Amino acid sequence: MKSEQLAWLIRRHGIEMTHISHGSHIGAILSVADIVAVLYNDIANISPENVKDENRDRIILSKGHAGAAIYAALAEKGFFDVEELKTHYADGSRLSGHVSHKGIPGVEISTGSLGHGACMACGIALNAKINDKPYYTYAIVGDGECDEGSIWEMALFANHFNLNQFVVIVDHNKMQSLDYCENTLSLAPFAKKMGGIWLECA
């Protein structure tokens, strides 16, 4: 399957999952679908066959409220049965509202408190650097999440230690909570600010 097809399926499952469960965060799920699809389909070295291999790539969804997108991608890639997506956010389901690693193959860590997923991903990337491991760590971060000071500390840390197998992808959908980012806490000029930190990390 092509990444475009996987992104479409992620969006379809996301809408169905939140409808069935009366859940929320559909905007975050829809906006991150292309990023998640390309990572799982075309870039990251992770599959049901190597999910416990210490040299597998790691994908960390720091904006954990979009967890349905990760669950949908994992199901479509064969990590677990697609039918289980219908249990999302139900009592007793292992598919919680915010992404959880508990019993879910392919989910590295549970996230939800904005900022901490990216920091944990940074630590995972540091482990690869220290121990000369080949794996890459990909952190998916929301633009509203970048209001958190921990995100900027993570960026400074990663640059200082030249974590060149650490990739942070910002889902810059320009929305957070119930308003536009620029009305809450403007990030502009975002690329210039973040680029100034990451410029030397190559």
Structural summary, described in words:
- With 202 residues, this protein is mostly helical.
- The chain has one domain (3-198): Rossmann fold (3-Layer(aba) Sandwich).
- The protein is built from seven helices and five strands; from the N terminus they run H-H-E-H-H-E-H-E-E-E-H-H.
- It has helices at residues 3-21, 26-43, 67-76, 116-130, 149-160, 181-184, 190-198, and strands spanning 58-61, 137-142, 166-171, 175-176, 179-180.
- A three-stranded parallel beta sheet has the order 1-2-3, sandwiched between helices. A two-stranded antiparallel sheet has the order 4-5.
- Strand 4 (175-176) and strand 5 form a beta hairpin.
- Helix 1 (3-21) packs antiparallel against helix 2 (26-43), helix 2 (26-43) packs parallel to helix 3 (67-76) and helix 4 packs parallel to helix 5 (149-160).
- The protein is globular and about 45 Å long.
- The two termini are 31 Å apart.
**Helical segment tally?**
7
**The named CATH superfamily:** Thiamin diphosphate (ThDP)-binding fold, Pyr/PP domains
State the helical fraction: 40-55%
CATH architecture: 3-Layer(aba) Sandwich
Strand content: 5-15%
CATH topology: Rossmann fold
**Unreliable residue runs:** none
The number of distinct β-strands equals 5
Largest sheet descriptor? 3 strands, parallel
Q: Per the principal axes of the C-alpha atoms, what is the gross shape?
A: globular
